[in-house]
Design a protein that fits this description.
The structure is a homodimer of 153-residue chains. Chain A has 153 residues and is an alpha+beta fold. The first copy, chain A, has a single domain, classed as Thiol Ester Dehydrase, Chain A. The first copy, chain A, is 22% helix and 34% strand. The first copy, chain A, has a five-stranded antiparallel sheet, covered by helices on one side. In chain A, a hairpin with a 6-residue loop joins β3 and β4. The longest helix of chain A is centred in the middle third of the chain and has 15 residues. Chains A and B meet through α1, α2, α4 and β2 of A and α1, α2, α4 and β2 of B.
Chain lengths: 153, 153
């Protein structure tokens, strides 16, 4: 199912402090193992039994899987008109994400820095916390996104 | 094909300045579209035609796809004995990654910070540059990884 989310937020529409809440994503062991088998094949991400004797003491999602799910939720919940174009990001994972976790993302606009050379755009810094159903943060993501002004011709 | 890379590097074996070079990964449009359809469904990542009229002027990989491929290459090229356990990371994408790019990762140990409370471990900061075949950097990743001393009993 292609997911062409409507794009509607221009730079003109964004203000520091604006908040955006995503839908939810239910993560299960099958998804964790499928992602990690392709991209992060370590025992604690791909083998529920072997994971028990590791640092994580049980199956845990790859941090990059949590980031990817977060991105999926952001595409729908942060509908920038030109898309979400990231220049960079800073991410931490305060707690492991486990099978059965139901994730959602709360984002806030932290700063808006107009481009010096190109007056039609700015770097918008967003802070996105990925929560599980227990109300605790699984991922803390700050991203620098490119946003454009509405064309006025 | 499960990828149980041998784990062998303990904290005792790591020094600032140590370098590690990964294998290569050939990225194609099919992989770019498959990843983005699941995790980053935006026109410039999932539709070669629609991508032409976007900021990227053609199909480009999701930044998080480049991160995921980088992780796959790091699992083999940075064989920490307890696995690659990330506390956090900082990532930028200086240039888009395109279909046909052949990626490899060069990593360097930047700092080693012993834990104050747990003498058996340290946070190892690594700097990993993901290059394409043109010698230009597609991703610049700094990560904080947990490493453990060899058990001496």
């Amino acid at each position: 199912m292609p997911d062409h989310t409507p794009r509607e937020l221009y730079l003109d529409d964004l203000s520091i402090g604006d908040e955006f809440v995503s839908a939810e994503h239910l993560l299960d062991a099958e998804q964790i193992i499928a992602f990690a088998t392709e991209f992060d094949p370590q025992p604690f991400h791909i083998d529920s039994e072997a994971a028990k004797t590791t640092f994580f003491q049980g199956l845990a999602a790859s941090g990059w899987h949590v980031t990817a799910i977060t991105m999926r939720l952001l595409v729908r919940s942060l509908p920038f008109a030109s898309g979400l174009i990231g220049a960079g990001a800073n991410v931490t994972w305060p707690k492991p994400t486990r099978p059965g976790d139901i994730l959602h993302v709360r984002s806030r606009i932290v700063s808006i820095t107009p481009s010096r050379s190109k007056p039609d755009r700015a770097i918008v810094q967003t802070h996105s916390l990925t929560y599980a159903q227990d109300g605790q943060v699984r991922q803390d993501l700050t991203a620098q996104l490119l946003a454009f002004k509405r064309k006025t011709n």
